[in-house]
Write a structure and sequence with these properties.
Length: 176
């Protein structure tokens, strides 16, 4: 896929080590981290490749959901018994231990729901646009998608081949 001023190259590596060296080499060549995308069939952390940590809003959404759930739990534990008092032989209207259980469960439920929605929205799912797909990734290989200037293609291809890329070719976006 070639845009008006950018080219997309896809380098395919047999293992994680050469891919990590390739990311370092791309940095040396002046390719910014946001123009490099590592595609892998196995979970690979940013630290394994020497890439900067990617920030996510999921922890903040989880905390907001937990606080919302706690508020709901407090309302259920204290508001409902006070709105509909039921006097039972010498016991308090708001019972202590069951109230703690209700507040805990509502806090966890709020956090669980908001975390699920946060991950769902953060991953931009569903996506209907064409994506880069390389069948070899299913066989355990690692691909690096590089967005570069057309005049730098030869230099990048040569560098990736020297590091150990099995192939370096133009990327093509296809419907999955």
């Amino acid at each position: 896929m070639t845009t008006a001023s950018k080219s997309m190259l896809l380098a395919l590596f047999p293992d994680l080590d050469p891919a990590a060296h390739a990311v370092e080499k791309l940095r040396e060549l002046g390719i910014a981290d946001d123009h490099v995308n590592v595609i892998s069939g196995i979970p690979v952390t940013q630290a394994m490749l020497g890439r900067p940590h990617q920030w996510s809003n999921v922890p903040r959404l989880a905390m907001a959901g937990a606080l919302g759930g706690l508020m709901l739990g407090i309302f259920l534990a204290f508001g409902t018994p006070n709105a509909y008092p039921l006097n039972v032989g010498g016991q308090p209207i708001v019972p202590g231990p069951p109230s703690v259980v209700v507040m805990f469960e509502m806090t966890m439920l709020g956090m669980l729901i908001s975390t699920f929605l946060g991950v769902f929205l953060d991953s931009r799912f569903p996506s209907y646009e064409p994506k880069e797909y390389v069948p070899e990734i299913s066989d355990g290989k690692i691909a690096i998608l590089i967005e570069c200037e057309p005049e730098n293609e030869g230099e990048i291809q040569a560098a990736m081949t020297r590091i150990g890329a099995e192939s370096v070719k133009h990327a093509e976006a296809r419907k999955l």
